[in-house]
Amino acid sequence: MTAVRSSLPRRIPYSGIWIDNYSLTAVPGGALLAGGVEWHRDGIGATSRTTGGAAFWDASQEAWFPLEPLPSPRHDHAAVTLADGRVLLIGGRAEQIMEMNSTLLWEPGAQGFREGPPLIEARARPIAVTLPDGSVLVLGSELDEDLERGTRAELLRPGASAWEPAGQTARIFHTGPVCVSGGQVLIAGGRDNGFGFAIIEGTHYAPPLSQSTELWEHEHRRWRSSGPLAESRDDPKGITLSDGRILVVGGWDHGRALTTSEVWAPGTGLWSSAGTMASARSSFALTALPDGRAAVSGGLVEGSFAATATVEIWHPGTRTWSPGKPLEVSRAGHQLAAVGEGTFLVVGNHTPTPDAPPETSWELWRPEA
User: The whole model's pTM is what?
Assistant: First the structure.
């Protein structure tokens, strides 16, 4: 393999102008970028296609190494790093395939992919988390043909060759953030009844937002309700902090971007206020920092809907937000992967000039640098 280096803007080693709906996962020694929707010039504008592209970012060389393509190209998939350093790509969609039940395993030694155990349910935009024992839990689906598909969870145990049923959510049909705290899996809000999204005579219809919280009981493979969120939140971000608490930030409420945040304590099972950000934004990244803090980076600023490079840091002791070190360029819809002590690889799209199309580039962000 040949390393790909570049100066700013540091473009990733894909052939398209930019990519969307890819996965970025931290792995031993770096990060893995896989799949996505790749955009190419067509003489008038740009056309898209599902890509099987993949690349490894080597932390020791701070450079990308292109990999052999995926056996089955995909986008809108989930990706998790397993305890042994492998990466599992889960479900997604591809050209003419609205949802996939296949999985792919990336082997770090061979730097290649092979087919993994197929899901019980085909899923587009699934949500997957790893549990302390190394198992993988997956749920969620974007499509509404089977309104309960996304509510039926699946579990893959370490070393198993097949997924097994892992219970159905009690109320939530379109889940909010899914996070792990110790042996518990938590769903923070979402939409809680069974009809889908529709546009009828210009009017948008959607299931009502729910403040309910659900917890998965590992022993009984069962979901149960827990203490509700303080606010209804459409499409918020959520992460598990280093002390096991879960932080949920932002989202929408009746078309208004929220600046508020709240934190869930595993000891009490209750949510409480976690402070207010200075600026309302959407399509931002929420990242847990090793010292217990959290960072909100980039996003689209409410009002102008322009991408921003600004960062806000959450402080657990005071439950307040303060300005942090900004990104190198303004981004929205980007992803971060921890690639070293206090170092994060950022991959996402930015616009070099107002009239230029987006480009997918990377940078290193160090909160304390």
Answer: 0.94
